[in-house]
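Subgroup meeting minutes
Present: P.N., E.W., G.H.
Scribe: E.W.

1. P.N. recapped why we're keeping a running log of single-chain structure predictions: easier to compare across weeks, and new members can see raw inputs and outputs side by side.
2. G.H. added today's entry (118 aa).
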Amino acid sequence: MGSEADRLLERYLTLVDDLVGIDGVTPPPGGSGFGRGSLKYQGKIFAMFVRGHLVVKLPEARVADLITAGEGAAFDANKGTPMREWLSVGERSRLDWLSLATEALDFARSAAPKRSRR
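Output recorded in log:
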């Protein structure tokens, strides 16, 4: 049986497989550097896998509510400053990763510029 880190990565890769067929969603590019494990909608990151945690972009109030409920922590990208719209979800959270990532995708869609239909 694999390690905990392998299990969490597999869980994330399953999430990627579930979302990648949606219009506008692109898979993680791989490589090194920030965003290497990220799912994007129209080029903007909405979910990523960082240090064994699912990290999602949600409205600031939603992130605050989830932190208060003990379901995650503010993500800080190792810069020492929490990012108000980013939630880091650990393996102990009761939240369903696909539901959370879908919520993040919906938030990304709402923030994306509308495409003109000419």
